[in-house]
TrEMBL record:
Involved in the biosynthesis of the coenzyme M (2-mercaptoethanesulfonic acid). Catalyzes the decarboxylation of sulfopyruvate to sulfoacetaldehyde. It is an enzyme of class 4 (lyase). GO terms for molecular function: sulfopyruvate decarboxylase activity; thiamine pyrophosphate binding. This is sulfopyruvate decarboxylase.
Length: 184
C-alpha cells in the first residue's frame, strides 16, 4: 500500500468533512487527487497537523480528518497525549506510517524498528486500529466516519512518493478559503 492509495480512499469517502493534511508530499498528493475548499494543506509546520485538527474539532461540529505522517507524529508525540485527554467526538486521525520521512528522501523513522504507534495511541487512551492493506483501510475509515469518538487509524505503507505538481495556491488563500468553507 502506498500513501497516495490511502489518500485516494479518504477522498472517495468524504463529503463535507474537513481535511487537515501533513506537510510536504502528502499535501501535494492530496491536492493532485482532489483539491477542495475543505482541504487545509499544512505547508509549513512539521508535527502540527494533529494539533491543528484537534483545535478545529473542538470548535466545530463537522467531522475533521487529519492526514498525518509517522515522522510528524513522532516529532510532536505530546499531541497524541492531548488528543487522548480531550477526545473530541468528531476527530479522525489517519497516520500514514511509511516508517520514513518520505518528503525529505525516505530517511527511516523509529517506527521502522522500535516504536509502535498503535500502542502509543492506545496508551494515550485512544481507540486505534492498524491496517496494512487498502481494503481494510477503507472498511475501517468508513466505520470511523460513522463513530462518535476520536478514532486513530495507523495505515502501514511502503515509502513511496507519487510524482505530483506543486500546490498552486498561495498559503494565505488556502487559509482564507478554508475558513470561508467552515463559516460561509
Ligand atoms: C521542524 C522541521 N523539521 C524538519 C522539516 C523538514 N521536513 C519536511 S517534511 C519532513 C518529513 C515528514 O515525514 P512524515 O511526517 O513521516 O511524512 P511523510 O513525508 O513520510 O509522508 C521533514 C523532515 C520541517 N519542515 N520542519
Amino acid at each position: 500500500m502506498k500513501r497516495i492509495d490511502v489518500i485516494k480512499k479518504i477522498v472517495d469517502n468524504v463529503d463535507k468533512e474537513l481535511i487537515v493534511c501533513n506537510i510536504g508530499i502528502p499535501s501535494k498528493e492530496l491536492y493532485s487527487v482532489k483539491d477542495r475548499e475543505r482541504n487545509f494543506y499544512m505547508l509549513g509546520s512539521m508535527g502540527l497537523a494533529s494539533s491543528i485538527g484537534l483545535g478545529l474539532a473542538l470548535n466545530i461540529k463537522e467531522k475533521v480528518v487529519v492526514i498525518d505522517g509517522d515522522g510528524s507524529i513522532l516529532m510532536n508525540l505530546g499531541s497524541l497525549s492531548t488528543i487522548g485527554y480531550l477526545k473530541p467526538k468528531n476527530l479522525i486521525l489517519v497516520i500514514i506510517d511509511n516508517s520514513s520521512y518520505g518528503s525529505t528522501g525516505n530517511q527511516k523513522t523509529h517506527t521502522a524498528k522500535n516504536t509502535n504507534l498503535k500502542r502509543v495511541a492506545e496508551a494515550c487512551g485512544l481507540c486505534a486500529v492498524e491496517v496494512d492493506n487498502i481494503d481494510n483501510f477503507e472498511e475501517v475509515f468508513k466505520c470511523a466516519l460513522k463513530r462518535d469518538e476520536t478514532f486513530v487509524i495507523i495505515a502501514k505503507t511502503i515509502p513511496y512518493n507519487e510524482p505530483c505538481e506543486d500546490i498552486n495556491i498561495p498559503p494565505v488563500v488556502i487559509k482564507y478559503r478554508f475558513m470561508k468553507a467552515i463559516h460561509p
